[in-house]
Every structure is written in structure tokens, then in C-alpha cells.
Amino acid sequence: IAVTPNANSHCYVASLPDYNVWVGMVAVSPRPGAGNNAKTRIHKGHWREARLVVLPRYQGIGIGPAISDAI
Fold first, then answer.
1. What's the DSSP call for residue 35?
2. Cβ-contact 28, 2 below 8 angstroms
3. How far is the C-alpha of 18 from the C-alpha of 37, rounded, in Å?
4. The predicted structure's pLDDT at residue 16
5. N or C: at which end does the chain have fewer Cβ atoms within 10 angstroms?
């Protein structure tokens, strides 16, 4: 998936280190609302999951929920 992420978002990659392979990624962005100031990049812990992708070979075995829980 080729996407230009929002400048305020953070992207994380999930991998299987024993096999040196990436299995998925997640992007989170600041949640709009009180306490989050995009101009100063102060986000006080209010984030939303914007995108979660797991490669087809690794889908259906619980990797997606594990990535979400880890973030």
C-alpha cells in the first residue's frame, strides 16, 4: 500500500525477528479534541488507530489484534 501519511501520524512495523520478516504495520494519529494541539505537536496521549495492515500470508492467526493491543 503506497500512502502518504499525515505529518502528525506515527507508523510502527510489526516483524518476526527470528525470521527477519515484516508481517504488518500500524499508523496512529493524534485524536482531535481538547488537549491535543497539532501546532505544538503536544498530544497528551490521545491517539487513534488510523490504519492497520497485516500481510495476507499472516492474516487469520491473531497478528492484527496483537499489533493493536501493543500500540
1. T
2. no
3. 39
4. 85
5. N
Structure pTM?
0.67
**CA-CA distance, 52 to 55, in Å (whole number)?**
10
Name 23's Cβ contacts closer than 8 Å, sequence gap at least 6: 14, 15, 16, 54, 55, 57, 58, 63
Q: Which residue has the higher pLDDT, 29 or 66?
A: 66
Residue 69 to residue 71: CA distance in whole angstroms: 5
Task: Judge whether residue 43 has pLDDT over 70.
Answer: no
Amino acid at 41: R
Residue 34 is classified by DSSP as T
Across the beta sheet with 10-16, the strand order is 10-16, 21-30, 47-54
